[in-house]
Amino acid sequence: MNQTSFDLPIILGSSSKYRAEVLRQHHIPFTVRVASIDEKSVGGSYRTQPDPDALTLTVAQAKMDALLATLPTDTQPSLVMTCDQVVSFKGQIREKPETKEKCRLYLESYAEAPAETHSAVVVTNTATGKRVQGVDVARQYFKKIPSNVIQALVDKGDVMHCCGGFLIEDAILHPYMLHREGDDDSIIGMPIKLLRRLLLEASSSM
């Protein structure tokens, strides 16, 4: 897939370096433009009565609304994408850990059950106003992670910026990862198969 397949430039509405890297690996040209929102103020009911798909779609839609509102009127017609992700663990939603202690507890728990990622993508064609959306779900299974490894991950700090407090790209974690249901890019938060479908749908005149 490349830019010429869609005849419109692609705008990534995310500051995530991990999502950007996935797009680069798949040779998808893009620019980045981000509009900040208070994510915790969006989709509250889906947190209290956990619905990870509805929550991520609601947040991604809010990001899209905020981003489109910031685009200058003379912006070239584009395909704009926004994303959101949470982890579901035993029916409970996990976002980015607020504290190191919470991150440690998250990592200690993953030997009990898989971390289930819910990754929402919203794409808008600014030329037509057409907006499409979807959610991809993947599961990562883990061995028991030793306490010294957990401490090393927390001290390193990258996991503090990841939903569920884990990062499959981190080599420190690799020896403790078991099988995966779904694709790496979905666990990372940029599900390419879903994105391909949504970009095509948004580009279509139908």
From TrEMBL:
Which keywords accompany this UniProt record?
Hydrolase
A single Pfam family, by name?
Maf
The answer to whether UniProt assigns keyword Glycoprotein to this entry is no
The family database entries (InterPro entries) matched by this protein are listed as: ITPase-like_fam, Maf-like
Gene3D superfamilies reported for this sequence = 3.90.950.10
Q: Which PANTHER family match?
A: 7-METHYL-GTP PYROPHOSPHATASE (PTHR43213:SF4), BIFUNCTIONAL DTTP/UTP PYROPHOSPHATASE/METHYLTRANSFERASE PROTEIN-RELATED (PTHR43213)
Task: Report the protein name in the record.
Answer: Maf-like protein
- The record lists the organism as Batrachochytrium dendrobatidis (strain JAM81 / FGSC 10211) (Frog chytrid fungus)
The root-end lineage is: Eukaryota, Fungi, Fungi incertae sedis, Chytridiomycota, Chytridiomycota incertae sedis
